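Quick one: NAD(P)-dependent oxidoreductase from Muribacter muris, structure tokens please.
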Amino acid sequence: MKLGIVGTGMIVQEFLPLLTQLNLDDVALFGRNPTKTAQLAQQHGIRHSYTDYHALLQSEVDTLYIALPNHLHSPFAEQALAAGKHVILEKPITANARQFRQLRQLAKQQNKILIEAVTIHYLPAYCELKNHLARLGQIKIVSLNYSQYSSRYDRFKAGETPPVFDPQQAGGALMDLNVYNLHFAIGLFGKPQNCYYAANLTRHIDTSGVLLLNFHHFQAVCIGAKDCQAPVMLTIQGDNGNITISAPANQMQHFSVNLNNGETAHYTFDTPHRMLPEFQQFIRIIDEQDHSTTEQMLDISAAVMDILDQARRQQGIFVQD
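--- reply ---
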């Protein structure tokens, strides 16, 4: 894989040190700020840096990892697919479900891989957890809490509008944090029948909220907060026992199974960095042109985007369509 990285924000800066652990043929970096882009490229041994996106699209890279503000995912990905590149898009894959459907159709027409970068689905702990769900009996309640006081929230309270709190840029707690809970739940149980979103709104954006998902025989509650903080806890409760996870869904490395008969077990997986498993799989999927796995993952992305749209519309949060 010849990878082009689009963006120079926090998630990219977290990803760049992992390049030496991935089987990549070449790497290029794109950013709007020439100085910052050049410095990051030099710091991480990246030979090619660009500030012109069209020049990057004309280069020899075959895959783009797009990690830009949410509202830019679709237009940048559309250009990349049209140029014959595979595309890895940071979560949420697009700003709304309509954009996602258009990109999925374009990727199919171009015979290119389109996939969402959500660490959850590739973490060894999450993959192993699936094997233990049946031990819980009939699932009754799922509770997922990802509450993290945002480093940008004080600026928002002071009157600024950082992208993560900008409705026009598809920001908000649901799109930034609760989306992980949604991926966690849908990856395990499929698409819920319906949803209800109760949000704390300030200046037309959800700074925190509770998303209720109605599945066929059980209920799930997803809490996402950027304006307050609490211990992160995920629980799956069945009539025979429960599974508990004391870490955010996108970072989980362990879980405990606690059965009503007194049996308990703790499972731990040593994952050097949460982004490594997903990119190892992305490289394999693209190298092998594994469209079957791609479609399975896109089906999850489609379900997530539909719920995100429904939830935001219920609260009058701007949805670009």
